[in-house]
Amino acid sequence: MEQKLRLVEFQVLFKSWKRGIPWWDHLLLGLLVWLEDKFIDLRVEAELDSAIEEYKKIEPSLPDYVTPVYTETFSEGSTSLPEMRLTAPWYKETKE
């Protein structure tokens, strides 16, 4: 696997710090690739955290756990059994 620097800042650092000594240049490249990976991971994590915080500000706040509403109405029909309903608290029944 070829080690390659992805960010311009690290490429500039490598070009300015390399000395033409093969073992030094290889060691420097390895160190910069490792640092670049850590830097990218931290930058991505910070971006995701800020995006999640922004989303939480925009998201409508619903309760974490909602208990359903249980209703029981007796019908005037042929059966003597009541009509039982289980609905969410924010459900609005429309009257027609």
Succession of helices and strands: HHEE
Strand count, sense and barrel status of the largest sheet are: 2 strands, antiparallel
Mean pLDDT: 85
Termini separation? 70 Å
| Helix residue percentage | 40-55%
Low-confidence stretches: none
Envelope shape: rod-shaped
Structural class: mainly alpha
Strand order of the largest sheet: 1-2
Radius of gyration: 32 Å
How many individual helices? 2
The total of beta strands comes to: 2
How large is the share of residues in beta strands?
A: 5-15%
Describe the structure.
It is a single chain. The protein has about 100 residues and is mainly alpha-helical. It has a domain of about 50 residues. The protein is built from two helices and two strands. Strands 1-2 form a two-stranded antiparallel sheet. The chain starts with 7 loop residues before the first helix and ends in a 9-residue tail after the last strand. The mean pLDDT is about 85.
